[in-house]
Amino acid sequence: MRFTVDPWDPSYGTGLDADAGDEAATSDASVDVAVELPADRWEPVAPDPRVRPPAATLFVDGVRRVDAQAWVDDGSADIGPGSSTAALCASYAAGVVCCAGERAEPVAVTVARSLLTSAAGATDVVTPAGRYVAEVVPAGGGLAPAQNLSLALQGRLAAVEVDAAGRARTEAGTGDDDLLVVDGPLRGRQHLPRALGYVKTHRTRYLQRLQPELDALVATLAPGERTPVFLLGTSWQRYTWYMRLPTGPGSPWAGVVRLECSAAQPPADAIAMAALSQVTLPRYASDGYKDSRAPQNLYPIGGLERLLRRRLGDAGVIYRALRRAAWDTADTPVAVPVH
C-alpha cells in the first residue's frame, strides 16, 4: 500500500467535525415532565441536606486528534490506476480520574491510533511515533467521504470511552459507594450502575418546544438548584434534569448543565440520583480565572483532558513521522520538510 500525507496542517481544521451525538438529533424528542412533580407544581429543587456525596466520584472523558489527512492507493482496480482514497490518521484516548477524599488518580487510560479509510486494501502505517491500525470504513450512507471518516473516528473514540468506563471501578477498587460521571450523553453506558451523563452545552432546549413555561424555569435556578426530573427520548429514553453550578452573574443559562441517567431504573432511583448530583458535582465546578469553560468544565474533567492530550504525543513530531512513513512508501522519493 502507498499513502501520501496532505501538507495542509490539520491543526487549522479539517472540516471533519461531525460529532453531533444525541443532542443534535433529537429536536422532536418526547418529554414526560411528570416523573417527579406534575407540570403545574414545577419549581426549583434545592439540595437535600440529608444527602451525602459518595466516597468516590469517577469522571470519564476522551479526546481525539486528526494527526494528518492522507490519501491511500491500495492498488485496487475499482478506483483505477494511480487513483487514491481519502484517509485520516488519527490519535484518540480515553480514561477515568477517580476522586476519593483528597486524592485524584487516573485509571483505565487507553491510547489508540487509527488509519481510517474506505480503501479495502489498506494496511497499518508504522512510524517511530506509533502504529496506525488500518480500519476500513464502509462508504455510502449519503455522507461525504470526509464526514463519513469523521463519524467513524468519533465511533472509535466512543468505543474506548465505553471500555474505560466499564473498567474504571475494577481498577480503582471503589466498591459500591461511588458515582460514575460520563462527560457527554450517557449513550452506550446506560447499563452501568450509578452512572450519570454530564452535558455541558445545549444544542437543543428540550422543554422549549412542548413546555415553554417549564423551560423558562431553568433561567430562575439558583446555584445548586435543579429542575424536577423528567423523561426524555426518541429511539432511546433517559431520565434527565437541568442544574446550575456555582457561578457569578451572566446569561440566563450561565453555569447550567444537563444530567441524565438510565431510564431502566425506577423513577424513585432517578430522583435519588438527581439529589446525589446536587451535593457532588458543584464541589468540582471550575473557576473562570483558571478555565475559560468555567464552571461547566469540572476540574477533574479538565485535568483528565490535559493528561490524555499529553498521552497522544507531540502533534508536530507525529506529523513529521507520518510524512516520513509516507515517503518510505512512495515509488518516487519526495522531499520531507523538517522544521
UniProtKB/TrEMBL annotation:
InterPro entries the UniProt entry points to: NurA_domain, RNaseH-like_sf
Region feature Disordered, mapped onto this chain: 1-23
Protein name: NurA domain-containing protein
Lineage: Bacteria, Bacillati, Actinomycetota, Actinomycetes, Pseudonocardiales
Entry coiled-coil feature ranges: none
Highest taxon of the lineage: Bacteria
Domain (NurA): residue spans on this chain: 174-290
